[in-house]
Design brief:
14 helices; isomerase; Glutamate-1-semialdehyde aminotransferase; PyrdxlP-dep_Trfase_major; binds pyridoxal-5'-phosphate; EC 5.4.3.8; 37% helix
Length: 443
């Protein structure tokens, strides 16, 4: 049996809570990133502020050490403090951060991206994934001279055009929503309907090649055919899947090459870098599209990007991610099944999510909160919505995590049987980033 970091309930987060109190005065919503907000986790039990991180571990301001499966929300694909990337940043720092003219690193990294991502022939950088997706949409609108978007999903984080679909659409003009036509993944008829109704006005079909469910029945190929038959641009949002599902991302894994792709998480191991890449005939539109920002060619991120991709290629990082992730996911599901709980981990081994259902098969945030509480007090940092694996996660980490899970699952099982889930929670029940009803909305 692996020794766990600490005994149940001995987790002290006093300093974290003190900082949180301070944040009430200085930081609106207490966070820069809703998915990292205290309310997203079990508030009162989970750490809130981090001091530093190394490899696959994070250390909070109270000195508690965790194996981290959120990986900074995905970008920490290689690991924290990963030497070849940090060295590249330090080396570039000696030369300068930002200049009055473009730096040659823009070209070096573009070459590397074009040698790895199948659809990439030209590269336009951004500082965030949200900007990259927004920019891809702007390009498609400029290319087609159309406004509407066929969009798959409701993730709701990528700027106005998409956030308008969520309950956090405050401040976004209502006409924006009318431009977005939503279709469902693996239901090609929902995309067909959009084009039958409004095909001449659709600028782009925009989707992740996959989220948690694999494409079925040639879904991606059919979506591409429909887009092209109707003169629309096919955009794959590979912010998450890029460099993770395969070196060439989801398009390489599933063998469907889009016109334009967005990249972000996984591109620079935590440095702020995104990119829109694609075939020259589409990317040339950026000769005229205005997306021009002072820090766009900032070189520490470009150096990190180059070093990150070099490592991903030379070490075949996706193979490690699939290998470790499969061991972890299979282990979770085996233990959950043996203990006959309503807990499972679904999705992909490299992008999985915990699902907790009650005895009626209904998703229960209370049960999930208890599971997360038990895991964090045993030194395992899980996110309720998505968990990743990085190159620094070792077999030792996986075994430790499964040992913690075995204990946690037993606690949850007992609590469910005794009807004492809520009583055993020492903090708040987790809350979704997008509340089901809008603030101030009448019932
Ligand atoms: C699929 C997808 N696209 C785009 C984004 C936005 O990226 P960023 O958070 O870097 O702005 C995210 C963020 O979670 C994402 O998951």
């Amino acid at each position: 049996m692996y020794r766990l970091y600490r005994e149940h309930a001995s987790l002290k987060i006093t300093k974290s809570l003190k900082y949180l109190k301070h944040a009430e005065k200085r930081i609106p919503a207490l966070t820069q990133t809703f998915s990292k907000a205290a309310f997203t986790f079990v508030k009162g039990v989970y750490p809130v502020y981090i001091d530093h991180a190394y490899g696959s571990h994070m250390v909070d301001v109270d000195g508690n050490d965790y194996i981290d499966y959120l990986c900074g929300l995905g970008p920490i694909i290689l690991g924290y403090g990963y030497k070849p990337v940090d060295d590249a940043i330090k080396e570039q720092l000696k030369n300068g951060i930002l200049f009055s003219l473009p730096h040659k690193l823009e070209l070096d990294l573009a070459e590397t991206i074009c040698n790895t991502v199948p659809c990439a022939e030209m590269v336009k950088y951004s500082k965030t994934g949200s900007d990259a997706v927004t920019l891809a949409i702007r390009a498609a609108r400029a290319i087609t001279k159309r406004d509407k978007i066929a969009y798959c999903g409701t993730l709701g984080v990528q700027h106005d055009w998409q956030t308008t679909l969520t309950t956090r659409d405050y401040g976004i003009p209502s006409w924006n929503r009318k431009q977005i036509k939503v279709f469902e993944y693996n239901k090609i008829e929902t995309l067909e309907e959009i084009f039958e109704r409004d095909g001449k006005n659709i600028a782009a079909v925009c989707m992740e090649p996959t989220m948690f469910e694999p494409p079925k029945g040639n879904f991606l190929k059919k979506a591409k055919e429909i887009a092209h038959k109707n003169g629309a641009v096919l955009i794959f949002d590979e912010i998450v899947t890029g460099y993770r599902f395969a070196i060439g991302g989801g398009q390489e894994k599933f063998g469907v090459i889009p016109d334009i792709t967005t990249l972000g998480k996984g591109l620079a191991n935590g440095m702020p870098l995104g990119a829109v890449v694609g075939k020259t005939e589409f990317m040339k539109i950026f000769d005229n599209v205005f997306f021009s920002s002072t820090n766009q060619g900032e070189t520490l991120s470009l150096a990190a990007g180059k070093a990150t991709i070099d490592e991903i290629r030379s070490k075949n990082v996706p193979r490690h991610l699939w290998d470790m992730g499969t061991k972890l996911m299979n282990g979770y599901n085996k233990l959950a099944k043996e203990n006959e709980t309503g807990i499972s981990f679904t999705g992909y081994p490299i992008r999985m999510r915990p699902v907790c259902v009650d005895s009626n098969g209904i998703e229960s945030l209370e049960i999930k909160s208890l599971l997360l509480q038990e895991m964090i007090t045993r030194g395992i940092f899980l996110h309720p919505g998505v968990d990743y694996i990085g190159f620094s996660h070792t077999l030792h980490d996986v075994k430790k995590t499964l040992a913690a899970f075995e204990e946690s699952v037993k606690v949850v099982k007992k609590a469910v049987e005794n009807n004492s889930v809520k009583k055993q929670l020492r903090g708040d029940v987790i809350r979704p980033v997008f509340p089901p009803k809008k603030m101030g909305t009448k019932k």
